[in-house]
Design brief:
two-stranded antiparallel sheet, 13 helices, mainly alpha, 339 residues, globular, single chain, two-stranded antiparallel ribbon
């Protein structure tokens, strides 16, 4: 029975990781476009940027809802601890998402678009920074007393979490810029080639700092990374991420349109696999393992039947959206199919 419980817990660890990666990749460029809209040259450019998201941003954020619900059902102990530990940044993220939604709803028909432009851009920035603080606080370690949270309300705010939050801002800005390269043309596309190169370099600096700092904070991570022969296998992940970065810079210099976005996704993908490998089998680093936090086997099996149907349905819906709304976005015509 214990073997079955651990097997199911591992399946749910993989599924949660999959949903998290899908959320970061899909809503990441969404939030990135929002942040970049703060630097738009004029209202025309800003309108094009927001139109590129108008029909897809709701579906992107659905993955966040699935992530929260799945964590609550599969690992209720971890859900309770994280909710307690990250209450303030979670509220900041929710408020940011609310501001974004309000901006989309009201900006279209507003005579004075400035307040809604600011709400959209700052809401995107708030949500991104909050997610960075949550991730930084999680990697940095959550104070525990047995199975209960033992920290304070502001324990998530550390120099390490500030660095992770900065990395999240640069990373999402990179995804947003490379997405806009695909969806736009002319001057706005040229500006986003430049934005993408700047964001990529800043993200690399932040990622390097995080990669050096993490094993210094956690001895068990250092032991896993540098033990032989683990070092050979684990080193492939940062090597793949760095290769993706080099290919990203090459594709930006050659003014490719689609390749930069997919190489950016590659950086995030390999980085998250590296994070999962580093923290496994802990779901609360160094204190609570997957098996200790997982719900009963009956609950895990019951939830598998639901999410087993939901994830393919969501992926199909997302794919259909991107196919329907492919092509360039132009202010006068909306979407213009390139095929």
């Amino acid at each position: 029975m214990q073997d079955l419980h651990l097997f199911l817990a591992n399946i749910w660890f993989f599924l949660l990781g999959l949903v998290l990666v899908l959320y970061v990749m899909l809503d990441g460029f969404d939030l990135g476009v929002g942040m970049l809209s703060l630097f738009a040259k004029d209202e025309r450019n800003r309108s094009i940027m927001m139109t590129s998201l108008g029909y897809i941003w709701d579906a992107n954020e659905t993955w966040l809802v699935i992530l929260g619900g799945a964590l609550f059902g599969a690992f209720p102990l971890a859900y309770g601890v994280m909710l307690h530990a990250f209450y303030l940044p979670l509220l900041l993220m929710i408020f940011g998402l609310i501001f974004r939604g309000m901006a989309f709803g009201f900006r279209e028909n507003a005579d004075n678009k400035v307040p809604w432009n600011v709400a959209f851009g700052l809401g995107s920035l708030m949500s991104t920074v909050a997610q960075g603080f949550i991730l930084g606080g999680f990697i940095g370690g959550i104070p525990m007393n047995g199975r209960s949270y033992a920290g304070q309300a502001w324990d998530w705010l550390t120099p390490f979490s500030l660095l992770v939050a900065a990395g999240a801002v640069f990373g999402y800005a990179l995804l947003g810029a490379t997405y806009l390269i695909i969806k736009t043309e002319g001057e706005i596309q040229t500006r986003n080639y430049r934005h993408a190169m700047i964001a990529a370099c800043l993200m690399l600096l932040a990622a390097t700092g995080i990669s050096i700092w993490t094993p210094l904070r956690h001895a068990y991570v250092a032991a896993r990374w540098f033990a032989w022969p683990n070092f050979i296998y684990i080193a492939l992940l940062p090597a793949a991420a760095f290769f993706s970065f080099l290919m990203l810079m090459r594709s930006l210099q050659k003014r490719h349109e689609r390749a930069p976005f997919f190489w950016s996704l590659g950086i995030f993908f390999f980085s998250f696999i590296g994070l999962a490998v580093s923290l496994y089998p802990y779901i609360i680093p160094t204190t609570i393992t997957l098996a200790e936090a997982a719900a009963s086997p009956k609950t895990l099996v019951f939830m598998l039947t639901g999410i087993g149907m939901l994830i393919p349905l969501m992926l199909g819906y997302n794919a259909y959206q991107y196919i329907v709304f492919r092509g360039k976005v132009r202010e006068e015509e909306g979407y213009h199919s390139s095929s």
